[in-house]
Design a protein that fits this description.
mainly alpha
Length: 318
């Protein structure tokens, strides 16, 4: 049953992510998305671990059933490490907005996985609300999607577009599956402990993926000169703790707090409902951009936002 606290927590997480995206922009421009993603996950994992100690829930984590912990850990690997990496690969080939459009498939995957694994079904009104929210997000994204530039490789090679679409679908399936696995595991693990396990495992998985990727790059190119190092893209430059100091603030909001809210929302909502509400970040981003840049919101964006609000109301009632 969907109670108010679950949907509100999911919406708060989506809003926190939208704010954090703007806050992360300078660090991403300087160091690259992969380095920043790894840094924020590592920092937030340490903070969540310290929080567990302070509130005295470390013993709860230690006594949690192994199966539940493994499910939550797997949700971190699939939903955050694999899902984020696949999304980055899709954005590189399709551009941000086309990739985000395909991310609206995540709730459908979540609903399918939830039905198959737990028998969870949405009522008619809740299902209608979920569909209205997805429609609202699509309307918000669609006006800019047509002008979204793909990468040079995609523009020159249609095969790159097909690969980008495949990566985007993998990302959506990973995110939907991660939500369902986390929800199943949280039947026996409280929110704070689950958030720590999911994020910490995801951070380790991302670190291993980054090490593997850098190893492949070294074998594919000759020893680099000083000029090559200077010309390396942001993801390939070493980022020291002092250089990533600007990541701490947005990490507190967009990772530490947002992950706690996300896990609370997943725990208190059906998996498909949580996935739909967590997908509203683009709507919040549009509103934040309008305020930040002091520009009016277009008619289609207003319609999309209104649809999202109506869908949330239907979900709450349903």
């Amino acid at each position: 049953m969907t109670t108010a606290i679950g949907p509100m927590a999911c919406l708060a997480a989506a809003f926190a992510w939208a704010l954090a995206v703007e806050w992360f922009r300078p660090a991403v421009a300087r160091h690259g998305a992969t380095a920043v993603n790894l840094a924020k996950n590592a920092i937030a994992s340490v903070l969540l671990g310290l929080t567990l100690l302070v509130v005295g829930q470390l013993s709860v984590l230690m006594m949690a059933p192994t199966k539940a912990l493994l499910l939550i850990a797997l949700s971190g690997v699939i939903g955050m490490a694999l899902g984020d990496s696949a999304l980055f690969a899709a954005v590189h080939r399709l551009g941000a907005h086309r990739s985000l459009l395909l991310q609206t498939l995540a709730p459908a995957f979540a609903a399918g996985f939830a039905l198959a694994l737990t028998g969870e079904r949405l009522g008619g009104r809740a299902l209608a609300g979920a569909l209205v929210i997805v429609a609202g997000v699509l309307v918000v994204l669609a006006p800019r999607a047509s002008g979204d530039a793909t990468s040079a490789a995609a523009a020159a090679d249609p095969r790159a577009i097909r690969i980008g679409v495949a990566w985007a679908v993998v990302a959506a399936a990973s995110q939907g599956g991660g939500v369902v696995l986390a929800k199943i595991g949280m039947d026996a693990v409280p929110v704070l402990a689950a958030a720590f396990v999911r994020l910490a495992v995801a951070a380790v998985a991302l670190a291993l993926l980054r090490i593997a990727a850098r190893g492949r790059l070294r074998t594919m190119r000759p020893a680099s000169s000083d000029d090559d190092a200077a010309a390396s893209p942001p993801d390939e430059r070493a980022a020291t703790p002092s250089h990533l100091r600007g990541v701490v603030g947005p990490t507190l909001l967009g990772t530490y707090l947002a992950v706690l809210l996300m896990m609370l929302g997943i725990d208190r909502s059906p998996a498909a409902v949580a996935a739909v509400l967590l997908a509203t970040t683009p709507v919040f981003s549009l509103l934040i951009d309008a305020v930040r840049l002091r520009r009016p919101i277009g008619a289609r964006a207003l319609i999309g936002t209104a649809l999202t609000v109506v869908g949330v109301a239907l979900l709450s009632v349903g």
